[in-house]
Design goal:
The complex is a heterodimer of chains A (323) and B (245). Chain A has 323 residues and is α+β, with helices and mostly antiparallel strands. Chain A contains ten helices and 17 strands. The longest helix of chain B has 38 residues. The two termini of chain B are 23 Å apart.
Chain lengths: 323, 245
């Protein structure tokens, strides 16, 4: 019997099946389990597996061998400056762009070998609010359901459910072109969820929205993740990644710089930062404790600001660039 | 194999229905001008193939309309692709290329049929009564099918909306004027006739006109239209993947 490559939980579970032998393999769609004398060793397959993915546009290397895994139910943020390769990664995973090398699987489905099966696994919320302006909210969602070959009754049931979930019940009959930016974003997210995908790709979901609306969208994303979806989010907003993600990948010039939790990434620099403006140049010093940061500012002239270390500090420390 | 065609078709036809009140007057303007200028003013006393010029002109206008209105789906696809990015919704969905093309082609044919109906009604106001039969409908539908497929193919290949406008100027406009719409091709030099024999509109205009006169249409014309329909449809399906980066 092959040893599980990734043991997430070790659960003592009463054997449900009376005929289960002392050791055996249990396999479901999303679970590889190994039963061993009354104990189940549970090992989940990653929902998103990317191996050495690459893409070249002319002489520009958009992606240069990206590899990462995203676990089931995880909210994973992909953080980097504009042009780093975030959208290219999502476009390849969702079949909008061809990749030159490497491989990727979505819920176990290879995007190159089984593209149509792979496409059933995700919902896509693209950067552009690409609703059909001349269709109502309901019609936009209905067409999406038909694209996934869902029965009409099931689509209508799901639309009712999603409109309520997204607090859009009274906007079902509105033409998409009459909605505000925030409402359109919620409809695009609802549309991506009509076919109940296992994975949700969110490409810069709050770009161009005002802070209030952004926070509402964040709350919605948290709620969707809490309900079991695996979320892959690209963003160049530091606070978005910090607030939402369990793990963050830094990407720069088409390559992954690091993958870790926001807390681990920031703690490498200490907990506190002091920004100092000197001769029109901003410098930042990092400190383990707030007291040390305060003591440092007292030694300086005016123009110092004490704050928590954030992901942008970690990104600058690793790449020398701002996000 | 044709998964997704219904979604694509339904999307296009809902939009079409919503714009119908604006489209019907738009569809009426050009044919009305042709009927007044060429049919009434220029060709009032002309007789072509034993018919009044208006009786000759109207089936030609119908053939031209089936071409232009079916080809107009290219602009719709381009706007959806380059400006609204709605095409990405189709690309990311688990639908087949054939299903996508079929949905767009059927929507284009629906649009061409509605625009054709407007011209038939206009013709009645000018006192032109045509024979309608299966051959008439088949010629009209095959012509719309060819140009709808060609429109989808070219919409997948162009890199901007401006390119699409160029294609219309170089392909559709010359064919519209030289494909047997306004005058009998027999009056042209024989080498021009041979060149125009490649154009689908030439065959469509001939079948629709023959049917509208109550004459039997040539089976060769139907065969050519059917072959061109198959070729352009397969070409359109093969072009869908080219729209990806």
């Amino acid at each position: 019997m092959r040893t599980p490559t990734r043991i997430r939980t070790l659960v003592g579970v009463q054997c449900v099946h009376p005929n289960l032998p002392p050791t055996c393999k249990i396999k479901t769609d999303n679970l590889l389990g190994y039963y061993n004398n009354g104990i189940i060793l549970e090992s989940t397959k990653p929902m998103i597996e990317i191996r050495d993915l690459s893409k070249q546009y002319g002489k520009v290397q958009a992606l240069g061998g990206v590899s990462l895994d995203v676990e089931k139910g995880e909210l994973f943020a992909y953080l980097g400056p504009n042009g780093a390769g975030k959208t290219t990664t999502i476009r390849i995973l969702t079949g909008l762009t061809r990749h030159d090398g490497g491989a990727a699987k979505l819920n176990g489905m290879d995007i190159a070998k089984e593209p149509r099966e792979a496409k059933k696994q995700f919902g896509l919320v693209p950067q552009q609010l690409n609703l059909d302006a001349d269709l109502t909210v309901r019609e936009n969602l209905f067409i999406h359901g038909l694209l996934y070959n869902m029965p009409r009754s099931e689509i209508n049931r799901r639309i009712d459910e999603l409109l309520e979930y997204m607090d859009l019940t009274d906007r079902g009959g509105s033409l998409a072109k009459t909605l505000s930016g925030g409402l359109k974003r919620r409809v695009v997210i609802a549309r991506a969820m009509v076919h109940s995908p296992a994975i949700l790709f969110l490409d810069e979901p709050t770009v161009g929205l005002d802070p209030n609306i952004r926070r509402r969208i964040w709350a919605l994303i948290k709620k969707i993740q809490a309900d079991g979806a695996t979320i892959f989010l690209t963003t160049h907003y530091i606070e978005e990644a910090e607030f939402l993600a369990r793990r963050v990948a830094f990407i720069d010039e088409g390559k992954i710089v690091t993958i870790d939790s926001p807390a681990n990434l920031t703690s490498r620099l200490g907990g506190w930062a002091v920004d100092r403006l000197e001769d029109d140049r901003l410098t930042t010093e990092f400190f383990e404790a707030r007291e040390k940061a305060v003591a440092y500012t007292l030694d300086q002239a005016d123009g110092c600001t004490i704050r928590r270390v954030n992901l942008e500090d970690a990104f600058i420390a690793m790449t020398g660039k701002k996000i | 194999m044709i998964d997704g065609w219904l979604a694509v078709y339904l999307r296009e036809t809902i939009i079409l229905r919503r714009r119908l009140t604006r489209l019907i007057p738009a569809w009426s303007v050009s044919p009305l001008l042709y009927l007044v200028a060429f049919g009434f003013a220029v060709g009032r006393n002309s007789v072509v193939h034993g018919h009044t010029y208006l009786e000759f002109l109207l089936p030609g206008l119908l053939a031209m309309t089936s071409m232009t209105q079916a080809f107009a789906i290219a602009s719709e696809i381009n706007v959806a692709r380059f400006y609204h990015h709605i095409f990405e919704e189709f690309q990311a969905a688990p639908i087949s290329n054939t299903g996508y093309v079929l949905g767009e082609v059927l929507a284009a044919i629906t649009r061409a049929l509605l625009a054709g109906t407007v011209i038939i009604v206009l013709g009645l106001f000018f006192g032109v009564f045509m024979n309608f039969n299966i051959a008439f409908l088949l010629g009209y539908l095959l012509n719309a099918f060819i140009f709808a497929s060609l429109a989808v193919a070219l919409a997948m290949l162009v890199k901007s909306h401006a390119d699409q406008t160029l294609l219309t100027s170089f392909i559709i406009t010359p064919m519209g004027f030289l494909g047997g719409t306004f005058f009998p091709l027999e009056s042209l030099p024989s080498w021009v006739q041979k060149v125009l024999a490649i154009a689908p509109l030439t065959h469509a205009a001939r079948t629709i006109r023959a049917a509208s006169f109550g004459e039997s249409a040539s089976s060769t014309d139907f065969a050519i239209l059917a072959v061109l329909g198959c070729v352009t449809f397969v070409f359109a399906v093969s072009c869908v993947n080219k729209a990806r980066d």
